[in-house]
Amino acid sequence: MICSWIAFSLGPQAITPRTMIGVNALLSMIFHFGSIMKNLPRVSYIKAIDVWMLSSMTFVFLSLIELAIVGYKLQMQREKDHVIEKVDRIARFAFPAGFSIFNIIYWARYGFKVG
Fold first, then answer.
1. What tens digit of pLDDT does each residue of 95-105 get?
2. DSSP 79
3. Residue ranges making up the domain that contains 63
4. Residue 3 lies inside a defined structural domain of this protein
5. What's 41's DSSP letter?
6. Where does the chain cross the membrane (predicted)?
7. Rounded (5°) CA angle 11-62-2
8. Could you give the number of structural domains in the chain?
9. Residue burial 43-55, b: 16+ Cβ < 10 Å; e: rest
């Protein structure tokens, strides 16, 4: 999950490495989620691990969407554009901030249950 944020540090021109990092992070999250679900009993309600894994996968998927937007903008404009760098810079801080807010909410909701 956090390794997908490394892609934001590579810059907008590093499309191939960013794609590899994002896809590998998403595939590892899917594999990890599948192995967890295989070992847990089936229940009719949503478990805390479901919320955690699906939210983490959503953050990784959104980083791939950001990559697609940046790649599309790069192909449409040949000259250096400051908007692309601004989107990357915003994403570099927005994704960790959003994940931190999610962590606070998640642990407040699921982390302090006793019994």
1. 999 999 999 99
2. S
3. 15-111
4. no
5. P
6. 21-40, 52-72, 93-112
7. 70
8. 1
9. eeeeeeeeebbeb
